[in-house]
Design goal:
Blueprint: E1 15-18, H1 19-26, H2 30-38, E2 44-46, E3 49-53, H3 54-62, H4 70-78, H5 87-90, E4 93-102, E5 112-114, E6 125-128, E7 138-147, H6 157-168, E8 172-173, H7 178-181, H8 184-189, E9 192-193, H9 195-208, E10 213-220, E11 232-238, E12 244-247, H10 249-258, H11 263-268, E13 270-271, E14 277-283, E15 289-291, E16 300-307
Parallel strand pairs: 8-9
Antiparallel strand pairs: 1-3, 2-3, 4-7, 4-16, 5-15, 6-7, 10-11, 10-14, 11-12, 12-13
Helix pairs in contact: 3-4
Bound molecules: zinc ion (ZN).
């Protein structure tokens, strides 16, 4: 299974998962782990224990074909909704939206900048959501966010063709660290793709064709908890009918790969909006949160988003 994926290059790899965690995630024994490292799975030894990058383990599991690894079970659950009638994705939905911002090793009171939910851009609304006050170390954001869905497929044949060309070019969806996804040329050069990287590249192609387009980040909700924190991004583009559309390119691709009965959902990804996505004000390669304390370490952003009704 090690031959079927691209490992995360050393400069973006963060080896935090112990051998025991790797065995659990991949439902395998120590001999299997030896076979994987022999086949090139990168690791770091600390105090006699080998540690692995979480994306490498996810991708190995997801494409292992074993059917019982944690990533395969998680993605099957994640995309169960995509095989159902899309009506449920178009109705109004309300979320209890909480975000915790942590600036590690920080003891300086400074302002926060947080790319808040911007549901109004696509017909939803946000209640509450006061900007975090200046503080040291950590801050929180809370709001009630309502999302809606609408079938507004791309009408421009040129935008449709560029999207189709991308989907047909065979890039393989992988879990990829957010920092690496901003380097979307590297990701695609490896034959891989992921939500942010795909959106950055497609937005560039839309702009090259003369359209106003931008990759934007958001939150993909109502799927799994912290076990699978899937970074979300899509392309926002002004279509020939003057309306702002979203192209959720990576979800369309991932749904197609994971399950053949997701045609209606895949079509929904090409211009329409659905209620599981909360748009943010952050552009495709930007972080959700910054702390103006001067620390070089990125702010950790943990979202807890629960369905209310
Ligand atoms: Zn700070």
């Amino acid at each position: 299974m090690a031959n079927s994926i691209e490992f995360i290059p050393a400069e973006y790899s963060d080896k935090t998962q112990s051998e025991t965690m790797a065995q659990e995630m991949l439902r395998c024994d120590p001999a299997d782990i030896d076979r994987l490292t022999d086949a090139g799975l990168p690791y770091e030894s600390r105090s006699g224990v080998r540690y692995f990058d979480v994306s490498d383990l996810y991708n190995l599991g997801m494409y292992s074909g074993r059917t019982n690894t944690q990533p395969e079970l998680a993605f099957r659950m994640l995309f169960r909704f995509a095989g159902r009638p899309v009506d449920d994705l178009l109705r109004e939905k309300t979320w209890d939206f909480r975000v915790q911002l942590d600036c590690v090793e920080c003891d300086e009171v400074a302002p926060w900048r947080f790319a808040a939910p911007d549901a109004a851009r696509f017909g939803g609304r946000v209640v509450g959501g006061a900007a975090p006050e200046p503080s040291a170390g950590s801050a929180a954001y809370e709001a009630t966010v309502t999302t809606v869905g609408a079938q507004t497929p791309l009408v421009s044949s040129e935008l449709r063709q560029l999207t189709r060309d991308y989907l047909d070019s065979g890039y393989r969806w992988q879990m990829i660290p957010v920092a690496m996804q901003a380097d979307y040329e590297l990701v695609h050069a490896l034959g891989a793709t992921s939500c942010i990287a795909a959106s950055l590249l497609l937005a560039e192609r839309f702009r090259a064709a003369g359209y106003r387009a931008e990759a934007k980040r958001g939150w993909f909700c109502g799927v799994l908890g912290g076990a699978l924190d899937l970074p979300h991004a899509c392309v926002e583009v002004e279509d020939d009918d003057g309306a702002l559309k979203t192209v959720d390119i990576a979800k369309a691709q991932l749904a197609a790969r994971l399950s053949p009965d997701t045609g209606d959902f895949q079509e929904l990804c090409l211009g329409s909006i659905y209620n599981k996505v909360i748009p943010s004000t952050a552009s495709g390669n930007a972080a959700f949160g910054y702390h103006e304390c001067g620390s070089r370490l990125p702010v950790q952003v943990r979202a807890d988003i629960r369905s209310m009704r």
